[in-house]
Amino acid sequence: MLSRYTPPEFATLWSSTTRYTTWLAVELAACEAMEEADLVPGGTASAIRAQQLTLQPVRIEEIEKTVKHDVIAFLTHVEELAGPQARWLHRGMTSSDVLDTSLAVLLVEASRLLEVRLEALCQALSRRADEHRHTPMLGRSHGIAAEPLTFGIVLAGHLAEMRRCLARLRAARDEIAVGKIAGAVGTYAHLDPSIEERALAALGLRPETVSTQVVARDRHAAFFSTLAIVAAGVERFATNVRHWQRSEVGEAEERFTVGQKGSSAMPHKRNPILSENLCGLSRLVRAAVVPALEDVALWHERDISHSSVERAIAPDATSLLGFMLERATSIVEGLVVYPEAMQRNLDRVGELFFSEAVMLALVSTGLPRQSAYELVQRSAMRAIHGEGRFRDLLGADPDVSRRLSSDALGRCFDLAHALAHADAIIDRALKT
Amino acid sequence: MLSRYTPPEFATLWSSTTRYTTWLAVELAACEAMEEADLVPGGTASAIRAQQLTLQPVRIEEIEKTVKHDVIAFLTHVEELAGPQARWLHRGMTSSDVLDTSLAVLLVEASRLLEVRLEALCQALSRRADEHRHTPMLGRSHGIAAEPLTFGIVLAGHLAEMRRCLARLRAARDEIAVGKIAGAVGTYAHLDPSIEERALAALGLRPETVSTQVVARDRHAAFFSTLAIVAAGVERFATNVRHWQRSEVGEAEERFTVGQKGSSAMPHKRNPILSENLCGLSRLVRAAVVPALEDVALWHERDISHSSVERAIAPDATSLLGFMLERATSIVEGLVVYPEAMQRNLDRVGELFFSEAVMLALVSTGLPRQSAYELVQRSAMRAIHGEGRFRDLLGADPDVSRRLSSDALGRCFDLAHALAHADAIIDRALKT
Amino acid sequence: MLSRYTPPEFATLWSSTTRYTTWLAVELAACEAMEEADLVPGGTASAIRAQQLTLQPVRIEEIEKTVKHDVIAFLTHVEELAGPQARWLHRGMTSSDVLDTSLAVLLVEASRLLEVRLEALCQALSRRADEHRHTPMLGRSHGIAAEPLTFGIVLAGHLAEMRRCLARLRAARDEIAVGKIAGAVGTYAHLDPSIEERALAALGLRPETVSTQVVARDRHAAFFSTLAIVAAGVERFATNVRHWQRSEVGEAEERFTVGQKGSSAMPHKRNPILSENLCGLSRLVRAAVVPALEDVALWHERDISHSSVERAIAPDATSLLGFMLERATSIVEGLVVYPEAMQRNLDRVGELFFSEAVMLALVSTGLPRQSAYELVQRSAMRAIHGEGRFRDLLGADPDVSRRLSSDALGRCFDLAHALAHADAIIDRALKT
Amino acid sequence: MLSRYTPPEFATLWSSTTRYTTWLAVELAACEAMEEADLVPGGTASAIRAQQLTLQPVRIEEIEKTVKHDVIAFLTHVEELAGPQARWLHRGMTSSDVLDTSLAVLLVEASRLLEVRLEALCQALSRRADEHRHTPMLGRSHGIAAEPLTFGIVLAGHLAEMRRCLARLRAARDEIAVGKIAGAVGTYAHLDPSIEERALAALGLRPETVSTQVVARDRHAAFFSTLAIVAAGVERFATNVRHWQRSEVGEAEERFTVGQKGSSAMPHKRNPILSENLCGLSRLVRAAVVPALEDVALWHERDISHSSVERAIAPDATSLLGFMLERATSIVEGLVVYPEAMQRNLDRVGELFFSEAVMLALVSTGLPRQSAYELVQRSAMRAIHGEGRFRDLLGADPDVSRRLSSDALGRCFDLAHALAHADAIIDRALKT
């Protein structure tokens, strides 16, 4: 976790204090369930709870250096603090019962933190899409001028993508909200499935259908894949900001704060560094997917190769994505939009984007499609080479004028017609 | 697509003939919708349909060499075959309207082919899990003998994972069942949203909420991620088969067919090559995920960088996974299981796996957990070093016998008790 | 292998005919070495060679269906064709002796085919870099106007990168030029190391230092990593072409051939589709790296999980890269450069890129660096906001004019000075 | 960086203190070179050096919050500490001159730290390979008993791989030992190439052939790819340890330290957790490769998307690999080897691995290879099914005894002959 890219809530969530506190919460939930099943003396958990133990991560890690086992070190420390009654904790359980159930609690919480941020991003995109419903802009495919659209449509596209991501993230959270308290190889040899069910419910989780020693790792692979898809969506937005802010395009730019310096060498520069940063961060979130997939095929009832991977990617990928979503929201909110530049870039195309309307009008007159295409391309190419205005060149082409009156040709050059469905499109994204 | 790893249905699905036939189906569906909207003369589509055109991929590719544009080449060829009425096709559409809608049709069909195979795998796993409900087996964590379970539980774990995969695949299919007929930059400049809706419905698809020139690629990224998760689940099963078939384990093995040869040098060998192959193939399916994620951030309203990626990964990843599922099903069905070897391996552990039961019994007598752990470990280590039977060493340890009577100790060594919940676990997987 | 992206030489190289021919070449080289060691009757190999066998891949695959072992199927077929003397082939060898040695022969040849293409790309870059040594161009960082350079410098940067790639590819070829004829587990149980050495030398290979049943897969991982680095270099060039060709930049573009059509909807478009395609293909080549790395950790003396991976990535990654290099060379050679557009874009920046020269001049007068920075930024921001020419605004700022005379200020605005080292830089790339 | 997996030297290397100290070293080296070129007053660098500044990372980060630019924040802080003479630092330079040159210094040092560890691993492998030159062991392909080898040969294979990795790492270090002090877009607009050359030489670096604003990122991609190949080699070794330590194999195991606990539930377990951990960590190191490759294609003269990626992967991948190499060395050194278990596993195969010798003997008598194969397989299958000793079954088969005398058959069953080349093989690895 790079502190630079870690929002405070994520730093707290993934701290060793939260980790051990969560372990204790799992042990106590299991203990209470065992009390109800008369496996453990009643009142044990509440007595330990009443002690309000202050777990000391440093001490746990010290013990771990000897026993080389993190959960045993933790239990030893709890016994140091809570006295003999702590021996009832962890009864019939295996380390993974604690670890995997805790990981589920933490990932569910991480997902919630991400969902809040993703909702905020959606709201920001909604506001700006609504604001720019009718701001004409040049649509570009291949980086080349294509046909007009509105900036609102573009933002609505990002909004629709982010809403899909929100649905995916919620589904991934549901998949990961699964723990296990089923003993060494998942057979409930020293427990009973009802204990697991009760304990997990208290923690907001469901039992794994069939666990091995661990919760199945396909759930985690699905979770991390989802994070990467969200990150890719943010990357798409960030890539577009970078394009809009290019010197030659200049249609929108990141808010430049007072005191900010663009370059140590060139005082005049205002660079889209936040968006570039988001592109880099998305590579990091994406890099968690393959290791998570490689973690699935554990040997027999489990090996521990997934553990180091998850120690890294669980905090890193969730925190980075949390940071990305915050930064993306702030870029959306602060984005300085230049409608006049958008108009200027539209104008510069010399109405070439009406070529399709002309072609369709020609086809309507009975001309085969390919002939119409070639007829329009002829004038377009001349316009591109500076031989005149596209509209005029078409009008002067006898093969065109023979088919289309001056009026009919003029009707092909209508921006309002081209953007007639903007509201309908944007509303589809805003309202779903 | 390696023919070796491509089931026939997938070879057909991804043939150029199917591709162009699907393009035509999309054009005709769009044409019919335009007829209803009076944009195109009524009866055009049905007249072309009636011609039962035989598209010639070779001819289309020949034209493409000149025009360097696949859809234009296709349309030119259709016009060659169907005559002037074909000029009404593709009206107001852009290439991606055809390409992306067709890709959705093909991916939906690919998903269906995969789901059928995944269901077959689930059925095979169900049968074998049911068959081996009560076949005792050594559970292993870290490759080391742990506690007993049944082979049915192990298979039920794979079954539960595959059922989750099936649900994911259906969700991914739903996400990808989206087309677009919205024109050059998704603005319906020369069409109307109602035409898109009608045409797509005829193809079993929904419209993209907000399209650019293309359908958004986060959908495809989610689809390919899902394939990789399924493949990882198959890899987990295959890895376990490889372990079971190890010479020293010998608990189960792939069916060896008559005439098969294990090694060109060593006539005695029977190798789990099908399962090893599945492990390799899962790497290939997994390798499609990152490119699919990299495809998301297209520039502005689209660039075409995703196209070559999809030309490769769409046929490859779906076919490979189809092959994997067929092969996995056949391995499950043919798996030769050796219950007596499972029992022998269980026996060889010398009942060490009852150590936890003994430890819990000691804790019940009031001994702190860590002391109980160390007490049991003492005898276990001696047993491992060949100093006697674990059960006897414990009985002879005064620190144990002081707390547990011979009878009480004996009750800790009970396989039936350890496997008491096997049916309940297996039924959870079978019944969901 | 997508035929669309496979140059003919690679199609031949990876055909089943070439594969089996190479296997036979390996068997015969080994046979000859065994003849010299008197393990096999002298003249066997030359007699078989003299038969000029026409291997039939279809027949081999038919046999494989029964024996489920490719090399045994191959040997059976050779025996069918060459008669009883063929039984001397493969003596004391294991399948991998043939397969891995053949793979080395094929990868070495693939590398040679790639090197030829990479050299051609370097030559094309050299020519164009030399041609545009003194063509001024706007340097851009973050997509924002920075300082001037020349187009030749930019191309020289790509050239230098490609030359590094060529050196890496040669090193990777050397690493992969390793075979093994060491028997089942690499112990030469039925052979002698001298036989391996002689046979491999005849094939242009060296023996693996210590083989298991196979040649170690770190060599292949290094090879495929190298391909991905080359592909990334091509992607960098292609990305730049896409930027240069953007409508708003227009500094260079891919050659547009006669008859080519840019868009099915928009006749006026000329899209950088070749370069976009290269960006997509680089994702595919990159996707081979992780599977190749995952192939390294084979179990014990080998498992066969790497085999299916290599069946896919060896032909795919080498062919795709071969295609990429050809296409990149053709883009470089045909690139239509617009020096006047480059000059226009430079002019549009309004000399802001001389800001650093002004700042350094101010520092030379004794002003602290940060004060100088802020002083220059003040005028730059005003110029950006359209309040005047940068040069004039600076001259009119008393804090500047107090320190720099009008002449001194003028000397800061000198393009020739900014580009003084262009030749030196370009020559470093051309001459190494 | 997870402190759990970060050796102290790497924690120091990647601390913010070392980072800023390295920046200052680069600025001072550049300053000295500029003094010699009379661009800066003589003695500036040495005067600043004499002040022995104590840079305060916290203060720098505080300034960065306002200026949003790390190098400007750093320079401002240096000016705070060193007074007005510091304004001569960074003259004509751009941030990347400092950042990329510093990164090169740090990566070179990281590589040196890794090489030391890799050499130690090679030494440990050498010692153990030498120790077990003649310890017979069962060779396994596909996890199935194959032919005998010695444990020394196996370790020599890992040694040879690690030696190749060492050579690759040195080559990668050489590639990365490249800085740049060439100004905003690499044109030396305000400097001179000779200054760069002198300054970099003082830091142990060479100049980039043609830099953009940054050093070309293909160098870094090659560096991180190399780390992943080393990690994959460690993973291969760790995977084998896990196999050797399996309960059913039991041929070697990780040293179990006093006080260590294998499982919180099962006191008798001794798990290969260090090796499993190495397998997980290799996934993390591998995960750095694709982002590094994605960093290559920066836009124009650079964008800053690579920066966040490198902030994460440079410390993480190098530290993790450093930890892996230390841990692997300690596993090799402490590995508890059980030659008697190796012998027992060899014996258990019932001499089936001599099947190839028998087959070759049969071929020598004139039998076609495939007939010999089937003849031997017949007895082998019977032996596997418990119908007798392989050797006896062969002797009793008239098709065999007709061709091979009892003596001739006996000579096929000779372990010493099978291992005759062990020394030669091991020496190849030890001596290179």
TrEMBL record, chains A, B, C, D:
SMART domains: ADSL_C. Pfam families: ADSL_C (PF10397), Lyase_1 (PF00206). InterPro entries: AdenyloSucc_lyase_C (IPR019468), Fumarase/histidase_N (IPR024083), Fumarate_lyase_CS (IPR020557), Fumarate_lyase_fam (IPR000362), Fumarate_lyase_N (IPR022761), L-Aspartase-like (IPR008948), Pur_lyase (IPR004769). Coiled coil: none annotated. One of its GO terms (cellular component) is cytosol. GO terms for biological process: 'de novo' AMP biosynthetic process; 'de novo' IMP biosynthetic process. Its EC number is 4.3.2.2. This is Adenylosuccinate lyase.
